[in-house]
Amino acid sequence: xxxxxxxxxxxxxxxxxxxxxxxxxxxxxxxxxxxxxxxxxxxxxxxxxxxxxxxxxxxxxxxxxxxxxxxxxxxxxxxxxxxxxxxxxxxxxxxxxxxxxxxxxxxxxxxxxxxxxxxxxxxxxxxxxxxxxxxxxxxxxxxxxxxxxxxxxxxxxxxxxxxxxxxxxxxxxxxxxxxxxxxxxxxxxxxxxxxxxxxxxxxxxxxxxxxxxxxxxxxxxxxxxxxxxxxxxxxxxxxxxxxxxxxxxxxxxxxxxxxxxxxxxxxxxxxxxxxxxxxxxxxxxxxxxxxxxxxxxxxxxxxxxxxxxxxxxxxxxxxxxxxxxxxxxxxxxxxxxxxxxxxxxxxxxxxxxxxxxxxxxxxxxxxxxxxxxxxxxxxxxxxxxxxxxxxxxxxxxxxxxxxxxxxxxxxxxxxxxxxxxxxxxxxxxxxxxxxxxxxxxxxxxxxxxxxxxxxxxxxxxxxxxxxxxxxxxxxxxxxxxxxxxxxxxxxxxxxxxxxxxxxxxxxxxxxxxxxxxxxxxxxxxxxxxxxxxxxxxxxxxxxxxxxxxxxxxxxxxxxxxxxxxxxxxxxxxxxxxxxxxxxxxxxxxxxxxxxxxxxxxxxxxxxxxxxxxxxxxxxxxxxxxxxxxxxxxxxxxx
Length: 638
Prior knowledge:
The chain is an alpha/beta fold. The protein is built from 17 helices and 28 strands.
């Protein structure tokens, strides 16, 4: 028997270190084992072999080997835990899932919608992009940005790049923001590669996930398509990682470890000598600044649609202005499809008392309750719901006003003003049931004189023929957020939605706003991606925001108002080598008071690791005080 260092897959920071166990001589780094840990059964991952036992330690044998991981995935996980201020065990769980025992036959993991056929020839920019990827495949890796307007042919470049990787005996991973929202992309890959595709996403059952993993490890499915967790797929001889819609915030995990799949893809490509290709019509400023660009240019086969900014300060109608109603009336008369985006659910974002000025708020969260069509007020953070009061609970007045509009209100207004149009709503409420999203997209694709109403879901990479109008009902929703990415996200959302219109016929885009001179709207109206990014990068350079410095957010929460800020003040005194802002209070959520400490740093890995060490040492005291803290490196919002 040999000795090996093994990380037990337990979440406690108090035992975030490897332990020495006896293992059979043939066990190697990457083995996932069963073992006793204290009085409990546990799984663990072997991270080193042929080690010496610490002095005075009596070692115990493992119980067995469950399966094996590629050593590169172990290295990736250990780096991830360190970089994101988590623990090695929590990071290793990402690459070493608990696999259920086999029962019955394999079932297919999901089917996409039919997509565009393979073109007879590639455009010159596509040919140059594919040639550069092939060159990088043969040279042992690169990090590339594939930039081009919606409809410029980015997906075909991914397909050709995957084919080139397969020809060289390499595997490929293709990341998409959300599988359910990109069924056409999935369909194109399945049509091109057939059974050689594996699909990984959070909607799979344990059995389906195990089946797909077995096919990947065996080499039966050398191309993996999936959401962010697919970046950890155990693909043998990985040669290519494509990150589609690389600007999408859903690539960031919002639970510990708070990893960013785009950053993890870059690290994995570097570890395995693979090529990482990041594609978007609206790249992040970080990618635009740091990566080698492969530019595809404009849309294939059709011009970009014209964009009209409607100044709501001069419009009587809301949420439907006169210019928007006129365009919808044209579709009702002549036929066609429209997509309307309003990034708020419900009927009204708030109920407001005209007498005393108080809005009805959640008792557990410091946010207004949203009125929904079920005549109840809902909190979109904790799930609390209550009946709409007949009178103001504060002053007794019956003068309760509905403020603003959500997707349900927009749907009712469409029914009143353009009843000829079929209405399909797509938001978190309608898409909650399994299969509902696919039903909605299929219905929209098949219908005429139809309008798709929804939140940002409708701006994701859909391509439906016959869409002649896309409209942003309230472009100011995102601009009002106190976040350094607010302008970037507004520009991306408007530009991405504009890309849904006029793909096969002349199209129009209407953007309703109270701020028509806002920077992101001016550039979006001109489809000027490079211009917007140049101005945004100049602004961020002056302020020391990414990509020029890294941000780290540390959020503490507790049951009393003082303890989160007190913990962060103590933590601030232990950290150095960064500009530390705060701590400052945040909105209370789910009954817990919160505070935030923000760091600007050039060494995020060292600072996150230092914060993790301090929090690990303070863990017992934090548990007694009912306080917890989360370290978020490169947060998507602050």
